[in-house]
Specification:
This protein has 688 residues and is of the alpha/beta class. The protein has 19 helices and 32 strands. The strands form 8 sheets. The protein has a 7-stranded parallel β-sheet with strand order 11-13-10-14-15-9-16, with helices on both faces. Strands 17-27-26-18-25-24 form a 6-stranded parallel β-sheet, sandwiched between helices. A hairpin with a 4-residue loop joins strand 20 and strand 21. It starts with a strand and ends with a strand. The chain binds adenosine-5'-diphosphate and zinc ion (2 copies). One zinc ion (ZN) binds next to loops.
Length: 688
Amino acid sequence: MYIEVILPVPLADTFTYSVPAELEAQIVRGGLVEVPFGKNKNYYGIVASIGEKSSVDAAAIKPIVDIPVIAGVPCNPLVDTRQLQFWDWLSGYYLCRQGEVFKAALPPAFIEKGILHTFRRKGIARNALTPHTPSLPPLHTLNDLQQQAFLEIKACLQEKNVCLLHGVTSSGKTEIYTHLIRETLDAGRQVLYLLPEIALTTQITGRLRQFFGERLGVYHSQINHHERKDIWEGIGNYELRITKQRSAVANYEIVLGARSAVFLPFQNLGLVIVDEEHEPSYKQQDPAPRYHARNAAIMLASMHGAKVVLGSATPSVESFYNAQTGKYGYVRLEKRFEDTELPRIIPVDVKELRRTRQMKSIFSPMLQNAMQAALDRGEQVLLFQNRRGFAPVMTCKICDWVPKCRFCDISLTYHKQSNRLKCHYCGHAYTLPTQCPECGGELGFVGYGTEKVEEEIRALFPTTTVERMDTDTTSTKKAFEDIIARLESGQTQILIGTQMISKGLDFDKVGLVGILNADALMNHPDFRAYERAYQLMSQVSGRAGRRKEQGEVILQTSHLDHALIQSVLQQNYTEMYTTQMQERELFRYPPLFRLIHITLKHRLDDTVRDLAEAFAVQLREKLGDRVLGPDKPAVAKIQNLYLRQIVLKVENKVSMTVLREIVEGIQANLWAQKEFRYAVVQFDVDPV
Ligand code: ADP
Ligand code: ZN
Ligand code: ZN
């Protein structure tokens, strides 16, 4: 007997091994085997397939070493057929190895030798979960508009697998989800509730616990190993055997989680909710698999025959397009719960104020007055500046020299608290130069970040309690929660933050939101910059006046006439969408075309240049003008490796299998050349 085994290494999808006759009876698909790998290593791997023959030269095939056994029972299978099918799809679509999916799917400690021994799948699969007992407390009664939306969602899910719920902030989307969840549990099926950010789980967990109690499990990369096992066990029907005594098996029916929750061993998934579906943090950046959790969840759901609800106040252009073309259902909720007015957005023309010398700080007089008035009324203020640090860039006042990271070729950001320059790519910190190393000139700063905003606010409002929320102040989940708690309790009067404050949080007493620099948001060199800027500004505006009173937003910009600023001011999503779609069609961007970024890395700049040239030439032979580049990416050196990027823009209908064959063929060919042997290649399909 021969088996194909998935190993946690990125070299190939599977590796062939033979099975000694005495172990054959215990081999199952999805089961765990211990195999020799390389010179003197043993790995745990997963059996992907079983056969009697192998195309590989028999002499080169090694036998497996063992089948991990605990208490006399082999821990088989560890993953089921549906999970294997999901892994297979992920690696195929996102152009990575199954072993990379394996590593992402199983929590790190599970793969290490020994710890996996604590897991074993029960022989019998549960067909359906026990229907919920009537002991669960009643849900909130939906208002008329919510009830209508709820029925519309159900009706559209009769025909379609995915429904987009486009509801303004505070319209009660979360309340509608709870009703959909309850019905799914009543039908004896499991629910996956995805959030884009670990930090958001706490607030939603609190809200869901009151209705679903202990049936709710929380899963993300920051929970501890014991909690992870608990969730795998409760969702996947495993028995936990750390010691002889068996712990009580939790019967989780709902998992609230960040993107890695798509890898849980669901037995009977009925519903997936993707909240804040537009958030880019659903995309995994590094390492591979670089998957989009929303899209992966839609695929997972279809494998289970489950339905998907995507929720957002500012849908991604992709999802809205899918709704427009009828691929997804679409339900709109235009009114806030309790009919509170959407916030009033007041623009401030910063260019004009500068011209007339009225802009004395980073706050316009209008914003400063509005802040004072809000504080006087006992309301809280949010200030949004999507850059951390003090002043982002240091430059020479004479020759424009800019300090850059030695390893990453990216300009450094000044952090006042530590009085150092930091690279936001690799985290490396540098001491401040006292003068320009090029010309000896005096150094100054351009632009500003949240730290600078905080300093100026403290000077302007010395008796007010001020806090800052960005990745520097929220390195732990606890720190994040504490900032939120102090805002909720009213202790904090002004909160300054990056895009972290724009995400799905629900506050009571925020009367005013200030958007300090709308232009900086729009200036990113990325085809999604305007979409993102629209989403961020609407989302952060939505934090104002969520209960009863209408909130106020002051938006500072130097481009008052810009079409995007106008869409934001009028809260006109459709206009933004229409303009964006015209651009995307013109320049062949998603959702009309599929993008794939190929990044090549090497220690030597010349080598990576030659490799990229050769790669692009061979790609063009097959794909013609769908191939762009190679180019130096914006950051052309990261952690001592030089980079080149090739971009593929392909029609959506082009099969990923065909593309994969082309790309892998060229890759094999080039890597066989001695000089390219140590080069690294990365694929990013549907980059965000
Ligand atoms: P969204 O998810 O659309 O931003 P939420 O579901 O968070 O909106 O609702 C905003 C606020 O209004 C929450 O505090 C929520 O508890 C409350 N709310 C919304 N709908 C209802 C309802 N039907 N009954 C009671 N409270 C509701
Ligand atoms: Zn200089
Ligand atoms: Zn760096």
